[in-house]
Amino acid sequence: MHLVTIDYLIVAAYFVLSIGTGLFFARKAKRSMRRAEVVTDVELTELRYAGRPAAFLRGFRAAYLGLVVNIIIMGWVNLGMAKVLSGTLGISK
pTM of the full predicted structure? Predict the structure, then answer.
C-alpha cells in the first residue's frame, strides 16, 4: 500500500480537527464544572440527580470505572508489553 501526499494531508487534517474539537469541549466542560464548584464528573452527576439514587449512581460509577475499566486497561497494557518483549527480546508470553 502506497500513500500519496493527499492521504497524508487527510490524516493530518483529521488529527488536527480531532484535537481541536477535544480541546474546545474540554474548556466548555471546565467552565461548567468550575461554576458548579465540583472536581469530578461524578460529582457533577450527583448534583444533577438529587437524593439517594444519585449517591448510589456515584458509588456505582466509581466502582465500575475503578475496577472494571481499569482491569481491562491493565490487561491491555500487559498484553502489549508482552508482544513488545516477545518481538524484541524473544521472551515468550
Answer: 0.50
